[in-house]
Design a protein that fits this description.
The chain has helices spanning 18-32, 49-56, and strands spanning 5-11, 36-42. A two-stranded parallel ribbon has the order 1-2. The longest helix has 15 residues, at 18-32. It is of the alpha+beta class and 64 residues long. 14% of the residues are buried.
Length: 64
């Protein structure tokens, strides 16, 4: 699937909120009925941001 929209979420030490941010973005983009992807760009977080996003990829196939 080629997305027609890419949302980029920059993240740095966002472990406490990244799952909610991805879920909220999914709801908003899904309502548009476009093909989309969400890219989380982690800028060297020292917390579990990367691990949380990796875990969310099982639930959201379009999350990268």
């Amino acid at each position: 699937m080629t997305p027609s929209l890419t949302l980029i979420l920059p993240a740095y030490n966002e472990a406490a909120v990244i799952a909610d941010a991805v879920a909220e973005a999914d709801v908003a983009l899904r309502s548009l009925a476009w093909r989309y992807e969400i890219l989380v760009i982690d800028d060297g977080s020292s917390d579990d941001t990367t691990n949380i996003v990796d875990g969310l990829a099982d639930r959201y196939q379009w999350l990268k």
